[in-house]
Amino acid sequence: MNKIPESLNEALQYLKEGTYDVLAGGTDIMLKNRGYAEAPVPFKKNMLYIFNLDELRYIATHDEHIAIGAVTSYASMLRHPDVPDILKRSIRQIAGPALRHVATLAGNIGNASPSADGVLVLYLLDARIILASADGEREVPIEDVITGPGKHTIRPEEMIKEIRLPRRTFSNTFFKKVGARKADAISKTSLAGAARLHDNVVEELRIAIGAVNVTVVRDRSIEASFKGLTLEDLKARVDEVAAAYDSLIRPIDDQRSNARYRKQVSFNLIEAFIRQL
Amino acid sequence: MAEVTFTLNGEEVTVDKPLNMRFLDVLRTTLDLTGAKEGCGEGECGACAVLLDGRIVDTCILPLASVAGRDIVTIEGYRTTERFQVLQNAFVKEGAVQCGICIPGMIIAAESLLSENPDPSDDAIRTALSGNLCRCTGYNMIIAAIRRAAKEGEGLW
Asked: Which residue ranges form the domains of chain A, and what is each CATH number?
């Protein structure tokens, strides 16, 4: 049976006793299961509808992190002063206003698309995901939640409760999405970058690339290898940075773009990020 | 089947339909409100837009379950307001309507924008309309109409 739970506890109880897909904004899952007009949407499982679970609609600022409840819409994130600017920049390029009023980051995670714009920034910011079940909660880094296109490690009895974004300041952030048009477009490829500089020395460099592998690409060992360089040295070695990602950039051909284009654009975006530092 | 209660154009209604019906179909077929249109059917064109708690949403990808307890205003309800009159006049004066199928969604998008930002820049108007497709006008007249409505309806939003 399909359910509209009135509390998180009720939702978790359903998940413990039955098998459900969880629907928050539903903007992806409604389309994936699209059937005929005027007929019920032919979902493969029973559905747990949490869009009206107000308990999970919040943005809270803590000392170490920002907590975003699972049914918080993208539009509310845009309005909140403490949501990191880099996340807001990516959200402004997700679909259009009507979608942003209902779509959620939690749904973006559950959908587990390698071209997801929201998830890309979660990788960049070292987001941690709170997965809740009737038996308790666990906190999991985003890269351990998503394992491939449409694949994740959320257990059948669990649901995403909250997204935690560690509060960090960067000297510079970069977000670029390459799509067919400004709105209503899914990324052909995308890159989010962040750097922390101190006295002209690179203390931290982060790069996340979307739509070029089975998950978002983020490699901490490559990032660490460019730490400690002066800004001038880093810029002089921009080709090396791009080359370091060569084996990780393994895009596919699909209806939106092709592998060759995506690979070249990814290298260009890495270069653009480094050059504007 | 399940009973879902929500506010529709100012009145409480209860419908007894499967929770996984698209809200667009409930509006058009069950409730006989045909102002919202099916264009793309995938949340890109905005022809099916309504206001949910005052904000534009696409009903072709909204399940009935999601409107439980919420406040819905369709173009049929909105057209009884003074704000609608101002928008309608502005659309007529600027020649912003040709075939008309996108217009209910355009009006809903305009209300969603103006209620949040009564004095929008052209850029803000374009962003607000970025999820509404029009294949006739080329958009410039619609943008001019919203700019005019903001001016002529000053104080209404």
From this structure: 8-166 (3.30.465.10), 172-275 (3.30.390.50)
User: Per-residue pLDDT tens for A173-232?
Assistant: 999 999 888 888 888 999 999 999 999 999 999 999 999 999 999 999 999 999 999 999
Q: Please count the CA atoms within 13 angstroms of the CA of A128 that sit on its side-chain side.
A: 13
Residues of chain B with CATH 1.10.150.120: 81-152
Cβ-defined contact of A52 to B52 (cutoff 8 Å): no
- Distance CA(A87)–CA(A165), nearest Å, equals 10
Q: Do B29 and A38 touch (CB under 8 A)?
A: yes
Q: What mean pLDDT value characterizes chain B?
A: 97
B71 touches chain A (CB under 8 A): no
The dotted CATH code for B81-152 is: 1.10.150.120
Instruction: For residue A152, give how far its alpha carbon lies from the nearest alpha carbon of chain B (Å).
Output: 23
DSSP A85-117: HHHHHHHTTSS-HHHHTT-BHHHHHHHT-TT-H
Secondary structure (3-state) at B59: helix
Instruction: Test B62 with A23 for CB contact under 8 angstroms.
Output: no
Per cent of chain B over pLDDT 90 is 98
CATH superfamily for domain B2-76: Beta-grasp domain (3.10.20.30)
The string of pLDDT tens digits covering residues B82-110 is 999 999 999 999 999 999 999 999 999 99
